[in-house]
Amino acid sequence: MPIEVSSEVIETLLGEAARAYPHECCGLLFGKGDEIISAKPTANVHPEPSRHFEIDPRALLDAHRAARGGDRQVVGYYHSHPNGAAEPSATDRAMAAPDGAIWAIIAAGRITLWRSGDAGFAALPYVVAPR
């Protein structure tokens, strides 16, 4: 079953990747079940933002606190590969927790979704839902 992604999320991710270029953008994905309803850009606090990303830890903690008991949960993360492919890099594979989170990767005007798990990343099909 494909993940349903709001058209607003698609616009946000593509816009953030374009604005951040030549650096990597990053942020959080919110939703419930197999839906991604919203995205929140965060600061990329990595010392080498043109090659790596690190979501601002404060933004991550705040998002998880805000999601407690609410409809929308933190379901994953997004980042861009400004000069790469829309697939997990070796660094992504090494750093990802096998927690089932959804990762959206933006590159060359394209977005792909992945789920992190014990066996690494698995590609996720998705459909865009108007919102």
UniProtKB/TrEMBL annotation:
CDD domains registered for this protein in UniProt: MPN_like
Domain MPN, first and last residues per copy: 3-131
Classification via InterPro entries: JAB_dom_prok, JAMM/MPN+_dom, MPN, VirAsm_ModProt
Keyword terms, alphabetized: Hydrolase, Metal-binding, Metalloprotease, Protease, Zinc
GO MF annotation, one: zinc ion binding
Superkingdom in the source lineage: Bacteria
GO biological process, one term: proteolysis
Pfam family, one: Prok-JAB
PANTHER family associated with the record: CYSO-CYSTEINE PEPTIDASE
Protein name stated in the entry: Peptidase
